[in-house]
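[job 4417] fold queue: 2 targets
>>> target A
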Amino acid sequence: MSVPVVELSLYQSNWEKLYIEEKGKIESALEQKVTAIEHFGSTSIKGMEAKPIIDILVAMKDLNDAVTMIAPLSKLGYKYVAKPEQRERYFFNKNSRFHLHICEIDSKEWTEKILFRDFLRAYPDVASAYITMKKGLAAQYKFDRPTYTKHKEPFIREVIKIAEVCWR
């Protein structure tokens, strides 16, 4: 089993196109079962260096209905990855190129991911600080993606806290 390496790529203009194409496939496969679909994560922010993984957030009214999405998503190549510690979302992986997260529309999971993305889009100086931090962590934890992710969390939490105060 290979260890997922942390390698950041320069921003790729095709990331948005890849998301739009994949969103269309997901909407077709899931029909009217979803409330919203959003591109989030670093690949959704113009100019952001990122692991070249397109993160897609799918919202539904009731997370209990997410189990019905496993079969249609598997036909698109998505593999359901059970993560018992995550009770607010379902997680799927497609060729290590797409990560799909399903959660409830008004959940903390949905709100925080969109808030963080939108704040970084609105404040390039904060996005720049995030890139700098990510580069340092990627160099330090190149062969330890869980630790890399864990060490980004305090920055993300702080930005969300600021965004909630500024925007609400």
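>>> target B
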Amino acid sequence: MGKIMVVAGEVSGDMHAARVVREIKKLAPETRFFGMGSKCLREAGVEVLVDPTDISTIGFSEALKNYRQHRDHLKMMKKALEREKPDVALLVDYSGFNIKMARITKRKKIPTVSYFSPSAWVWGKRRARKMARARAVIASVFPMEEKVYREAGAEVHFVGHPLLDMVNVEESKDEICRKLELDGEKPIIGLMPGSRKQEVEYLLPEMLKAAERLKKEKGDFQFVIPVAPGIDRDKIVEMASRYKLVLKVVEGANYEVMKASDFLVVASGTATLEATIIGTPMVIVYRTSWSTYHLGKLLVNLDYIGLPNIIADREIVPELLQQDVTADNIYREITNFMSKPYLIKSIKRDLEYVKNKLGRPGAVRRTAELVLKKGKLYI
């Protein structure tokens, strides 16, 4: 019976790791799993020894506050590795922590696969070199990721992005509108302020102010907020109640809202890639603490923050960052694009180009096969 250690640290990593675990179980049903993660990995049958999601943060100064807990978690996982002696390790996202885990697995001679690897194409090639020196095998989900890790000397397998399998809405726009009680004949604007409380607090008020102005000046606009997992719906409703605005707040319908919407205002992150696959035009917004933003500017060598723009290597959708995330600017972007059908058509064409660069469906299966192969559990 094979044994696999899985290490994931945030909600998204927990979800992606769990999907790989389920696929491995189809291929090698007797495999046992243990490690670090949260709800999704538990539900997939992993013995979760550490759940770090309560200290998941964005930003440098924010992460420093939890340094001691991160250090304690690393010690716990090292002890578990020594005790359990797994055949292979699967490290998912959680870059700073998993770079350290990869060094430990190398010393213990445990084959290691890195999925959603440290973003060396964002933070610089040094991260890629660290993972290459740790002999982690990279299951690459982005084309630019494949290139930078290969140049660093790592073994890289381009598996493609798992969202190509996950983002699939069979219902038509009309069917979704009927279900959500929206008028498909009137413009629908989706507001997506993120999956972290901090993001919602920074971004949602400006989104709601812009929506309030749009409703006042252009009365036929409709607004809908799909509540991200882990976000309190009541908190969203309470924040929205401060504005003279009628909007829908729905749960468990992110993709449906994306498909039904004519335009999205969306926090930078995975949701922008989901919207890309669905093909919905958007403006990307993001705001974080002053210290995190300016330190990031010093460390990050990227012209864009949004994944669609990074993958395309040009701005195909507008971005509003930091002090530019204002109700006036959001209002301007929405009205500009919604009044010019040729711009909407152009964005949709560019989004299709980016979608094609993400590879082909089957990423989770290919990753599961790679993990089993490296652990000599299945060939």
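[job 4417] complete. Note on B: The chain has a mean pLDDT of 91.
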